UniProtKB/TrEMBL annotation:
Keywords: Repeat, Ribonucleoprotein, Ribosomal protein, RNA-binding. Residues 26-92, 110-176, 197-265, 282-352, 369-439, 456-524 form the S1 motif domain. InterPro entries: NA-bd_OB-fold, Ribos_protein_bS1-like, Ribosomal_bS1, Ribosomal_protein_S1-like, S1_domain. One of its GO terms (molecular function) is mRNA binding. Binds mRNA; thus facilitating recognition of the initiation point. It is needed to translate mRNA with a short Shine-Dalgarno (SD) purine-rich sequence. One of its GO terms (biological process) is translation. It comes from the Bacteria. Belongs to the bacterial ribosomal protein bS1 family. The lineage of its organism: Bacteria, Pseudomonadati, Pseudomonadota, Alphaproteobacteria, Rhodobacterales. One of its GO terms (cellular component) is cytosolic small ribosomal subunit. It comes from Sedimentitalea nanhaiensis. This is 30S ribosomal protein S1.
Length: 559
């Protein structure tokens, strides 16, 4: 009877086991921790099944496992029974499935999710989102590039899901989106409390070549380099340092872009308000060269007030040189105020006006006829340029090189660097020209030699050379040439060979040419003149006397 009862009980239990729904592999089931041994948790998942899970699967990245006997947990059933008769389960896979369900809902609702950065990979970081691993690109870590992500590792913080694909197991998150959103809210609040013209305190956050970014308490404003001071600022680091607290004025607020323009100089007195009174026209002041350009140099008269010395106003003598060869940066110079334009905030200055015009000085100290000495600076096709006192040049024209040689020939006797003497012939201060003459050094020998000689005068010359076309003669050192046709009234006597070198001959002056420095001489003209004079004295055309009689009488009268 008892045996029959036992068989019935066994059959009932067998039928009961068949009727139980065995969980499907690949599903998440609930279990209870019944023991912890050898670094593993033994979990009873019901259905008379037990499985083992490594303790590390119960720990968050960077934390210790939080598990104890009696705890109820959800695990993923990978296999109902293995070779040892145990269920193959995973806490990590259960957390992942749970996490994906939660993350998909958050992604659909555009909600933030909490996670912790736990590793670094190529191009970014890995983030644990409570069981699911996401990728955080480097560009999405912060609003500005992060050099050291160490302080962010393991820290629980919110993230925004940018993209996710459950089939491929990919999730991309952003920390930057969260920061920008909170920053935008903070910016809107701070900007709402600001107004143009307001003076506020800020901290210099960053410095660039064009200005500095100032933190006004959650929102940055740009302080441009031109708004830092009334004076010229070459680089913002000259007057600002990162971390420094400065007082600035809100110049402009763009409500759409939330950009704020700031200024420091607007809180200071504008030096241009007093420029007209402090720097009258033609007054001379000392200043410091702050900048040099191709067209001139900027000179600071006082902080905030600069004037331009144009290259044309820098030197009386250096016309085609770069301003940097006349002045240097930081040099202190004297300048004259030439023009003030208050509307454009411009001052025109002159450097050369503080020194006397060297051409005026030269004209006073070297009147015409003064002898000077200088170095040949340049040789051109029309003359020589001679360096003179005051760093100016004088020019000797070809026609003023020599009395006796053509200018083109005479200039061949000079070389650059030669020291020469000359006479000042003209100074034109307005045109800045000085004319010199080398040939006038010993005076005008031609003028001295022929000073009393006029056209028609009878002079005595000495024969110095005999040529086919005539004879060369000299008078008081001045050479002249008498052509064959002027050697005699009688054609038969127009022979150069009848003269000898050293002969003294009386000739008539037919022309005095000061330009070519030549005397026109003629024996023939002298003879004709003598004949006319004899006829006038001793006979007439109708007296019947022959020419021989007249000349004989004239000669006898002379005796």
């Amino acid at each position: 009877m008892s045996a029959n009862a036992s068989m019935e009980e066994f059959e009932a239990l067998l039928n009961e086991s068949f009727e139980m729904d065995t969980p499907e592999e690949g599903s998440v089931v609930k279990g209870k921790v019944i023991a912890i041994e050898a670094g593993q948790a033994i979990i009873d998942v019901g259905y008379k099944m037990e499985g083992r899970v490594d303790l590390k699967e119960f720990a968050n990245p960077g934390e210790s496992p939080d598990i104890a006997p009696g705890d109820e947990v959800e695990v993923f059933l990978r296999q109902v029974e293995n070779s040892r008769g145990e269920a193959v389960i995973s806490r990590e896979m259960a957390r992942r499935e749970e996490a994906w369900d939660r993350l998909e809902k958050a992604y659909a609702d555009e909600e933030r999710v909490e996670g912790a950065i736990f590793g670094r990979v190529k191009g970014g970081f890995t983030v644990d989102l409570g069981g699911a691993v996401a990728f955080l690109p480097g560009s999405q870590v912060d609003v500005r590039p992060v050099r050291d992500a160490g302080p962010l590792m393991g820290l629980k913080q919110p993230f925004q899901i940018l993209k996710m694909d459950r089939r491929r197991g990919n999730i991309v998150v952003s920390r930057r989106a969260i920061l920008e959103e909170s920053r935008a809210e903070q910016r809107a609040e701070v900007i709402g409390n600001l107004h143009e013209g307001q003076a506020v305190d800020g901290v210099v956050k960053n410095i660039t070549e064009y200005g500095a970014f100032v933190d006004l308490g959650g929102v940055d404003g740009l302080l441009h380099v031109t708004d830092m001071a009334w004076r010229r600022v070459n680089h913002p680091s000259e007057i600002l340092a990162i971390g420094e607290t400065v007082k600035v004025q809100v110049i402009k607020i763009n409500k759409e872009t939330h950009r704020i323009s700031l200024g420091m100089k607007q809180l200071q007195e504008d030096p241009w308000d007093l420029v007209g009174a402090k720097y009258p026209l033609n007054s001379v002041h000392k200043g410091r060269v702050t900048n040099i350009t191709d067209y001139g140099a900027f000179v600071e008269l006082e902080p905030g007030v600069e004037g331009l010395v144009h290259v044309s106003e820098m030197s009386w003598t250096k016309k085609n040189v770069h301003p940097g060869k006349i002045v240097s940066t930081s040099q202190e110079v004297e300048v004259m105020v030439l023009e003030i334009d208050g509307a454009k905030r411009r001052v025109s200055l002159g450097l050369k006006q503080t020194m006397r015009n060297p051409w005026e000085v030269f004209a006073e100290t070297h009147p015409e006829g003064t002898e000077v000495e200088g170095e040949v600076k340049n040789i051109t096709e029309f003359g020589l340029f001679i360096g003179l006192d005051g760093d100016i040049d004088g020019m000797v024209h070809l026609s003023d090189l020599s009395w006796d040689e053509r200018g083109e020939d005479a200039i061949q006797n000079y070389r650059k660097g030669d020291m020469v003497s000359a006479v000042v012939s003209e100074v034109d201060v307005e045109k800045e020209r000085i004319s010199l003459s080398i040939k006038a050094l010993g005076g005008d020998k031609f003028a001295e030699a022929v000073g009393g000689v006029k056209r028609g005068s009878i002079i005595t010359v000495e024969v110095t050379a005999i040529e086919d076309g005539g004879i060369e003669v000299v008078f008081e050192g001045m050479k002249s040439f008498i052509r064959r046709s002027d050697l005699s009234r009688d054609r038969a006597e127009q022979r150069p060979e009848r003269f000898s070198v050293g002969n003294k001959v009386d000739v008539r002056v037919t022309n005095v040419d000061s330009k070519t420095r030549r005397l026109g001489l003629s024996i023939k003209a002298r003879e004709i003149a003598e004949e006319k004079e004899a006829v006038a004295q001793y006979g007439s055309s109708d007296s019947g006397a022959s020419l021989g009689d007249i000349l004989g009488a004239a000669l006898k009268g002379d005796e």
